[in-house]
Write a structure and sequence with these properties.
Length: 277
């Protein structure tokens, strides 16, 4: 996985461990230090090849840069399952990598639902910003596209900035501070994950901008109090534990010589204060 500093991936590991306990397989969980530590994640794949692992279930930090090492894993006879963030199909073809099963939510649709929820709350012309994840990650691109579509359902909304904070709390805090100095009239903020939403909310609370509506993505347990308190308007539950569970079970299917589904879409759910009642 990308990291365990994000509770989303802690939940993903819990799902994977649940399947491990049900069937009694050997499961090693490896993570990079941060979600931006792509070279470290590449090294983890290379280490798995050297260790002669039989399958790798991966939530790649980058959709393109992980492809060469995963192609090397395939060449070594290792089965690959792709979770959460889709590997770039063009890069896979160029590298000669065979298709792999992909398990995730519809990231664009989930972001659309959260951004539309924000858009439905305003009745006057309003400015909005989108705080993106890592731009070379497919799920970050999908969420940005869904957020744009959702915000544009309200013709009175104008998106004044779209910038990346790389999934991180601190980067989102600093980016929010800079963007609000440039665009002080912003009323809506869509963050492509809850970690960045936490950073944005921290800045807004410190500066007394409590009228600004913020949406996130992941439905981390850490943000549920903010949802109930009205500090976070909405988030999206993409069932991280379910993704981890299905990822490892799919790998076991492949090891048994079975043909798994090549694409599994896990249900996502919009979470708001009303839905938590």
């Amino acid at each position: 996985m990308k990291t365990l500093t994000n509770p989303f991936f802690v939940e993903m590991e819990q799902g994977a461990r649940k399947f491990q306990n049900e069937v009694g397989i050997e499961l090693l969980v490896k993570t990079a230090t941060q979600e931006t530590s792509i070279e470290q994640q590449i090294q983890l794949v290379n280490d798995a090849i050297k260790a002669q692992s039989r399958a790798i279930v991966i939530a790649p930090g980058d959709s393109t840069r992980l492809v060469p090492s995963l192609k090397a894993a395939q060449d070594a006879g290792i089965h690959i399952v792709n979770l959460d963030n889709r590997l770039n199909s063009e890069a896979m073809v160029a590298a000669g990598m065979k298709p792999v099963p992909f398990i995730s939510v519809d990231n664009e649709q989930g972001a659309y639902l959260a951004a539309k929820f924000l858009a439905d709350q305003v009745r006057t012309p309003s400015e909005a910003i989108i705080i993106e994840g890592i731009r070379t990650a497919d799920n970050a691109h999908q969420r940005k596209r869904g957020a744009e579509r959702g915000l544009h359902t309200n013709p009175g909304i104008r998106i004044v900035a779209e910038e990346a904070a790389n999934w991180k709390i601190d980067e989102a805090y600093e980016l929010t501070a800079r963007l609000f100095k440039q665009h002080p009239k912003v009323k809506l903020v869509f963050c492509a994950n809850d970690m960045m939403a936490i950073g944005a909310i921290k800045y807004l609370q410190e500066t007394g901008r409590t009228e600004v509506l913020v949406a996130g993505f992941d439905a981390l347990s850490d943000v549920m109090p903010a949802i109930r308190a009205g500090q976070l308007a909405a988030t999206v539950d993409q069932q991280a534990a379910r993704q981890g569970y299905l990822g490892v079970s799919t790998a076991l299917q492949m090891l048994a010589g079975e043909m798994p589904a090549m694409e599994v879409t896990v249900d996502s759910k919009l979470v708001t204060a009303r839905s938590l009642k």
